[in-house]
Amino acid sequence: MQMTTDLLIVNPCDEEEDNLAMLCCNSAEGEMFLMSRFPDEDELEIIFHDKPSALNGVKVTLSPDRLLIEIAAADADVLDGEDSLEILHSTDAQDLAEVEETLQNILKGTGTYISQL
Q1: Rounded to an integer, what distance in angstroms lies between the CA atom of residue 40 and that of residue 47?
Q2: How far apart are CA 105 and CA 1, in angstroms?
Q3: Cα gap 96→64, rounded to integer Å
Q4: What is the CA radius of gyration of the chain?
Q5: Residue 57 CB: number of other CB atoms within 10 A?
Q6: Quick one: which of 113, 117, 65, 61 has its CA closest to 91?
Q7: How many CA atoms lie within 13 A of 10 on its CB side?
């Protein structure tokens, strides 16, 4: 599955929300993807098409124009029956360090982060 967004919206540590790390984006077609995690939680949360799911073992690869989310086949219902979501983005290169920090905070101890920056 693939979606395109202009911008990856991130917050590596929202102190007003108990240090929640969050990544979100919206496509031109109105699709929304949100991935978040509180630092004391064992699972991260993905919301896709307004359906929340708690997962672990998520693999995320970030490149300058692509974010690939891979989940276990058993969890494919989270992504409408797919085990991966490719998000093509146009995030400014200067903002990618904050995207990377956010992904590391979300995945620390519960998933795998791969940087292609």
Answers
A1: 19
A2: 25
A3: 7
A4: 13
A5: 15
A6: 65
A7: 19
User: Nearest CA to 60 among 94, 10, 16, 15?
Assistant: 10
Lookup: tokens for 115 = 């940087």
DSSP state of 11: E
Give yes or no for a contact between 102 and 91, defined as CB atoms under 8 angstroms apart. Answer: no
Provide the 8-state DSSP code for 52. E
Residues 6+ apart with CB under 8 A from 17: none
Positions in the chain short of pLDDT 50: none
Helix, strand or coil for residue 81? coil
| Cα angle value 79/84/89 (rounded, 5°) | 100
Cα-flanking dihedrals φ and ψ of residue 62, to 5°?
A: -115, 130
Side-chain-side CA neighbours of residue 103 (13 Å): 22
CA distance 109 to 60: 13
